[in-house]
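User: two proteins, same treatment. go.

Assistant:
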Amino acid sequence: MSQSGTMSAQDQAPILSKERIVAKPGFNRWLVPPAALAIHLCIGMSYGLSVFWKPLERALGVTAPIVCENMTLFEALFTTTCDWRRTDLVYIFTIGIVFLGLSAALFGGWLERAGPRKAGVVAAFCWGGGFIVSALGVYTHQLWLLYLGLGVLGGIGLGLGYISPVSTLIKWFPDRRGMATGMAIMGFGGGAMIGSLFANALMDTFSTPSSVGVAESMAVMGVVYIAFMLGGAFGYRVTPVGWQPEGWTPPNDAAHAMITTGNVHLKNAHKTPQFWFIWIVLCMNVSAGIGVLATASPMLQEIFGGQLIGEPGLGIKELNTAQVAAVAGVGAGFVALLSLFNAFGRILWASASDFLGRKNTYYCFFLIGIVLYASAPFLATVGSPLLFVAAFCFILTMYGGGFATVPAYLADIFGTQFVGAIHGRLLTAWATAGVLGPLAIVYFREAQLAAGVPMAQAYDYTMYVLVAFLVVGLIANMLIRPVSKKWLMSDEELAAVRHADAGKAHETGSYGIGLGGFSPLVLLAWLAVGIPFVWGVINTLGKAASLFQ
C-alpha cells in the first residue's frame, strides 16, 4: 500500500485508537516526555492527599471537630452529624494505593493493545473524576463517597496513569531508557509538591466562617486535573513497529550485559525467576524508603526535640505549645525536602543507570542504603540534625530512583514489547511495600517504647530492621540473570503480536520520525510542565529553609 494510502487509513481510525497515534514523518520524540509528565504531575498528588486530612477532621465543626465517642467505621461512612477521624480519612490513601496496584496489574495487557492515549484519557476521568466525586462526598458529608472517589476511582486512575507512558517512552528512547522513564516518573514525585501547594491556596481562597473550603477545592482540582491529563494523553505518539534512532546500535559492554535482544510474552513473564527477583528488589527498596517517608516528620521531632529550635536540652515532651508548633514546622520542612529529593532522585538515578547498567544501579541503592540506615542511630546520638537530614535526603533519592529505574530494568530483561503490562504487574510490589514499610517502622517503634526505651532512641532498632530489608533486596538483585532463551518469543510470534497491535499502522514508515532539535512546539510542551514544577520546587525550598535557620 502507498504511503499516502496508509496515512489516510490512519487518519480515519478512531481518535483514541492506537493506530491513530502512530507517529508520522517529522514528529519529534522529545514531545513525548512532557506528555507523560503532564499526567504524572497530576496523579503524583496521591502523596499529597494528607493536606486535606486536618481540615476534613473539622468539616462540620469548622473551628473545632465535632467528636462522637465510640463511633465505628461503619457509622463514620454515613454520619452527617459527626466529624471524621484521622484514621477514617487515611483509609482513602490506602484504598487508592491498593487499587493502583490492582488496576496496573489487571489492565496492563489492555493498555498495550489499546495504546497510551486511550489509557491516559481513562486515567484522566478516573483521577479527576475521583476528586469531583469526593467533593460531593465532602459537601454531603458522606465518607463512603470519598472512599469511592479518591479511593476506588482515583486508584484506578493512578494505576493506568502511572503505567501509561512506560512502554511508549522506552520504545522512543532505546538509547536512554532510564532517562526517559525517569523524566516521567519524576513527575509523580513532584506532583505532591505542586498539588499540596495548589490545594492549600484553594482552601485559603474558599474557606469561610461556615466552611473549610475542601469541597470547592477538590472540585476545582478535579476539573484542572482532567484538562491537564487530557492534554498529556492527546500528546502521546507511539513509534512505528521496528523504529529506532538513526545510527543507534544496542550497547554490548559489560555494564549492559543484562539487556536481552528478544522479548518475553506477558503470559510468561511471571513464570520466570527474574520477575520475582525484581519484584523482591522493588518491594524491599520501597519498603525501606516508604517506611521513613511515612514517619519522617514525627521521627525528626522525637529524636531531636528542642534542638531543632535552639533548645538542645529539651525533649519533645518537655516543650510548651509554642515550641511544639515551631518544631512541627521544622518537621514539615523536612518532609518537603524529602519530597524534593525523591523527585530529583528519579531522573538522576534513572539517567545514571543508562551508563552504570540497571543491576549496578540497584547495587548502589542497597549498598549505600545499608550504610546510611545503619549510620542513622549514630547520627542521632551525636546530635547532628543536618547530617541526619542529609543522610535521609540521599536515601530518598534512591527511593525515587528505584521507581524510575525499574521499568528500564524490566525492558532490559524482558524486552520492550510487553514492558508496560509487565511493569503493571510488578507494581503489586509497591502495594505490598506500602503496607510492609510503615507497619514495620511503627510496630518496632511501639515495641521499643513499651520496653522503656527513651523516645529519642526508639527508632534505632527500626533502622536496623530496614537494613535487613535492604540486605534481602541486595541478595535478590545478585541472583538476577538474563532470561533463558526458552522464554523468548520466536520471530513469527513477535511479528504476529505486532501486526495485531498496530494493524496497518506498521506500514506508516519511519523516515524523518523521532528527529531531535529545537522547535516552538517542543518549547511550549516543556514550558507547560516545567513552569508548575519549578514553582513547586521554589516553594518547597522556602518551606525547607526552616531546617537551616
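Protein 2:
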Amino acid sequence: MFDQLSGKLKTVFDNLSGRGRLSESDVDEALRGVRLALLEADVALPVIKHFMEEVREQAVGESVLKAVKPSEQIIKIVHDGLVNVLGTGEDLNLRMQPPAVILMSGLQGSGKTTTTAKLAKRLKEKDNKRVMLASLDIYRPAAQEQLAVVAKRVGVDSLAIIEGQIPTDITKRAITEAKKNGYDVLILDTAGRHEIDQTMMDELLAVKKIAAPAETLLVADGLTGQVAVDIATAFNDKIGVTGIILTRMDGDGRGGAALSMREVTGQPIKFLGMGEGLDALTPFEPERLAGRILGMGDVVELVEKAQQVVSEEEAEAMQEKMMSGKFNLLDLKKQIQAMQKMGSLSDLMGMMPGMGAMKDKVDPSKLDDKMLVRQIAAIDSMTKIERLNPHILNAKRRKRIAAGAGISVNDVNKLIKSFETMQTAMKRIKKMGGLGALANMMGGGGKMPFMK
C-alpha cells in the first residue's frame, strides 16, 4: 500500500544522508520533498499543512542542525510526526453488560460483510467471545445468505433469516436472541449504498437508536484515497462513528486515506484489512505503520506471523536438523508451506528493515508466490528416497519429476539450487558457532526471531 510513498521518502532522506551538517535551507529542501510525497500519496491537504508545520518546527531546531547525524534525527522527527497524525491504536470498547453490540456501517463494495466475518473470527479466537452475526441488508440480493455463509466459515452463529422483516425489526429480534442465548457480542451488518443518501442515514440512525451499540464502526475502502476520507467525514457527521476499519490495505493504492482519517474525522482507525483471507484483519498500530512507511520494516509483525505458523518446539527441532546436516526436501516443503501461510513474498519482504524500498529492484520472478507452489509440486513428484537424499537427483530423475509435477526442468533445478544454497549457508553458520551464536549477534538472546 505505501510502496510509492516509501520510495519517495527514501529518495529525500538518501539525499540528506550524504551532506553531513545541514543548513536550514537543506532542511527546507528536504521538507519540500516530504510535502510533495504526501501530496502524491493523496493525503488530505489540511493534514499535510498541519503535519509540515509541526515537523518543520522541530527539524530546523539547533539540536538537529548541529547534530553529528542530522539526517537520522530528521527521519525520527518525520517518523514521530507520522505517528502523531495516525493517532493512537485503540482496542474495541466492549466493556459493558453482554451482549455488546457492534454496528458495522459503510458504502456498498467497501468489504463490510467480509470484514464483519473477519472481526467475528478475531473476537472468537483472540478474545474468546461468543459472537452472533445478523444481517440487516434486505436490499442487496442474497446479502443475508452471504453473511450466514461466512459466519459458518469462521465458526460463529448467525441470526435466522425471516423474509419480509425490515432492518429495525431484525435488530430487535437479534438483540432478543443474543440476550436469550448468552452471546458476548452481537455484530450488525447494515445495508450499504453506492453513494451516501439520506434514506440510508435515516435507517442507520433508527437502527442505532434501538441497538445502542458499544461501537459504531465505519468500513472504508483504503484504495479510494481522498474519497474514503470524504465518506468517513460524512458518516461521522451524520451518525457518529467510534472507529474506522480500512480495507484493501494490501493493494496498490497510495495510502493517503490511512494518513488522513484520524485527523480529518477525529475518530481512531481500529483495524486494517490486509488481504482477502478471513484472518487478514490487523489491529491498527501507528508506530509500526509509520516504520513501514519510512522503509524501516515491521519485524514485530514478521515475528508474530511466524509464531502463528511455527511453534517453539517445531522451530527448535528444525534448528537441530539444519545444524546436524539432516535437513532434507521434506523439511524444506514444511518451511515453504509455513511461508505461504505467513503471506505473499512481497509482503514479507516489506516487513524486513530496509528491504521495502528494494522490492522494485528485485527480479519479479524471485518474489513470485507461484514459484512456491511449483516447488511444492516438484517435491510431491519425487519418491520418498529422492526427498530424503536430494544428492541422487540426476538429469534423468529431474526430467521425470518435472513431467510429473507439470513444471519445467528449470523449475526443478532452481529448487535443488535453493536447497544446496541453504545447506552451504548452514555449514557456514555451524562454523560460526551455530544459530544460537548468530541469534546472540542479532540480539536474540540465543534464540532466532521466529522462536517464542
